[in-house]
Amino acid sequence: MAERFATWVWVGAAALACVAGIVNVIGFLGYQQQAITHLTGNTSLLGAALIAGDTLATVHLAGMIGAYVAGAMLSGLIVQDSTLQLGRRYGVVLTIEAVMLLLAIPLFRQQHLAGPLLAAMACGLQNAMTTTYSGALIRTSHLSGMFTDLGIMLGHALRGMVLGRRRLSLCVLIISFFFVGGLMGAWMFARFDYGALYLPAVLTGCTGLGYAIYRHLHLPDAP
């Protein structure tokens, strides 16, 4: 399927992986040192919090998981289709994500739970959009699936099977940009605190604007 992706999809996937990398590392370094996009870890921590009887951690972790799912649900309501098509409302989703990240900044600074909840919702919104339009081939908010795909393809290559080079390139692209986002996020957080979230907000907004311009030029009659 990667062979059929247009250039704008590759650029968008790289940009959004970078966004998720920045947001996630800020979650780790900031309020309660909590991952924003790592649902597997948060689910395990939720189980541990329940057994330990830690009510505050239970509420926080359950809220993070629920916010991520709510973001994914909102994406499904907006995009409403699983077929990759230039006329879809991806720009609307990206604009909403940018607004959520901007609103999260003052809440993070106040150490308010709504800050990480908004960030988690933004990442759920983003990941659902990319998963929907790619048939689950592109996941930008976490890397377990991408590393799994990478391992599968390398195993196939060792067996002498045909290697899907563009799919391999896509995995490496997303992993690399998520990692770069983590580096950028850690560097900026050390200098600008939660103001570092302005970058992913702007990057998301610019990606949405770039998509809207691209769509207008190539599909001028789109609503």
Characterize the structure shown.
- 75% of the residues lie in helices and 0% in strands.
- It has helices at residues 7-29, 39-52, 55-79, 90-109, 114-134, 144-158, 165-192, 198-218.
- The longest helix has 28 residues, at 165-192.
- It is globular.
- The two termini are 27 Å apart.
How would you sum up this structure in a few lines?
The chain is mainly alpha-helical and 223 residues long.
Topology:
Blueprint: H1 7-29, H2 39-52, H3 55-79, H4 90-109, H5 114-134, H6 144-158, H7 165-192, H8 198-218
Helix pairs in contact: 1-5, 1-7, 1-8, 2-3, 3-5, 4-5, 4-8, 6-7
Radius of gyration, in angstroms, nearest whole number: 18 Å
Low-confidence runs of at least 5 consecutive residues: 83-87
Order of helices and strands: HHHHHHHH
What's the pLDDT, averaged over the residues?
84
Structural class call reads mainly alpha
N- to C-terminal separation?
Answer: 27 Å
Note the overall shape.
globular
| Total number of helices | 8
**What does the main sheet amount to?**
none
